[in-house]
Write a structure and sequence with these properties.
The protein is of the alpha/beta class and 366 residues long. The protein is 42% helix and 14% strand. The strands form three sheets. It has a nine-stranded mixed beta sheet, sandwiched between helices. The protein has a three-stranded antiparallel beta sheet with strand order 11-13-12. Strands 10-14 form a two-stranded parallel sheet. Helix 1 packs across helix 5 and helix 7 packs parallel to helix 8.
């Protein structure tokens, strides 16, 4: 569309936001007219000072060059006028005026989107719990949406890819930047077939601190519901949780250890009515999605020998160290090492945090 370049040009001005752009569009009904207008005194919500500042900035922007810079970088985009703009996102308060993306956004099922958020400094427990739940969604068409940050976000994206699910990463900068740098390969995976990376920011916009909470409304806005894996009382995950409720979407939480500071936000949300989830079926029930979940990696406890059963029973409640396991099972050091190794190879148990162990895959049995 001819008007696309004006949407893109306006989004390239760092000093204004999507709400400002939409206000212009709503007043003029045509983005070209909005861009070239010299009299903004009748636009609702704009002060004279703000309007004058905008006009000075706008006069420095060449719409054709702004659009060419996006196309030359291989970046796709959707504007609020685009027919294929995600309808869930369009219906939130302050949707992105322009949604930039790389990858195949429309290979993702936007009718089955699930946001996952949590702490950047997530515990191994939270990561493992999330991996378990996402693995139970294998062979479905659910799309995982997250923020491509470290911690829970990275775990969510990687787990989605490992289980054949599409995943969308929402970033808090333009595409000229990769943040965190450690996720460079993950960015590439999403862009090259595993889903898409999206942003509301023009390519040259840096990942400045205030853009991360702004990004969160898109993570939840693209999704029918949000799963919070870990969240302290003052965290971006809690911001996303509140945005989820404001947008009228389903909020779900994975419970954690009450001694962990990053679960204080979780239990606050649960006390206020969030849905507690411990498995994929809980998510499907909360969202009203009907689909068959094929159980994966089931292990029959009847196949455990006597000593394997001793180790397995010792890990029923919580993870334990090698010394704790030896004290409970009374096995020799050599035998316990052998059983721990073979059981880990089978996936029955898993080593975490150095010399600590916990149960691994799901089992069939009493």
């Amino acid at each position: 569309m001819i008007s696309d370049k004006y949407w893109v040009a306006l989004s390239s001005i760092e000093e204004i936001d999507s709400r400002f752009i939409y206000r212009l569009y709503s007043h003029f009904g045509d983005m070209e007219k909005a861009f070239v207008a010299d009299n903004l005194s009748f636009v609702e919500g704009l002060s004279v000072k703000k309007a004058e500042r905008f006009l000075r900035l706008r006069d420095k922007v060449d719409p054709d060059k702004a659009l060419k810079a996006v196309i030359d970088r291989g970046i796709n985009y959707l504007t609020l006028e685009s027919e294929s703009y995600p309808y869930l996102l369009k219906n939130i308060d302050n949707p992105p005026a322009v949604l930039y993306f790389k990858g195949d956004l429309f290979s993702c099922n936007l009718e089955r989107t699930l946001a996952v958020v949590g702490s950047r400094r997530a515990t191994s427990y939270a990561k493992d719990a999330l991996k378990k739940i996402i693995s139970e969604l294998m062979n479905t068409d659910i799309c995982i949406v997250s923020g491509l940050a470290s911690g829970i976000d990275t775990t969510a994206h990687n787990s989605a890819i490992e289980n054949g699910l599409k995943t969308i990463g929402v970033i808090a900068s333009g595409f000229d930047f990769v943040y965190p740098a450690a996720n460079k390969d993950l960015y590439k995976k999403l862009e090259q077939g595993c889903g898409a990376v999206v942003s509301e920011y023009y390519p040259t916009f840096q990942p400045i601190k205030f853009r991360f909470p702004q990004r969160n409304r898109i993570v939840s806005g693209l999704s029918f519901g949000t799963v919070v894996a870990e969240a302290s009382l003052k965290s971006g995950a809690l911001i996303t949780a509140n945005l989820t409720l404001e947008q009228g979407r389903e909020l779900m939480c994975i419970p954690g250890l009450i001694t962990n500071i990053n679960t204080q936000g979780i239990y606050k949300l649960l006390k206020n009515g969030a849905t507690l989830i411990t498995c994929a079926e809980d998510i499907l029930e909360a969202l009203g999605w009907e689909m068959k979940i094929e159980q994966q990696n089931l292990f029959d406890t009847a196949k455990l020998d006597e000593n394997e059963q001793l180790v397995y029973d010792a890990l029923e409640i919580e993870e334990k160290s090698f010394d704790e396991l030896q004290n409970i099972t009374k096995l020799s050091v050599e035998n316990l090492l052998m059983y721990l190794t073979t059981m880990e190879l089978k996936g029955i148990i898993k080593q975490v945090d150095g010399d600590r162990y916990r149960r691994g895959i799901s089992v069939i049995g009493p």
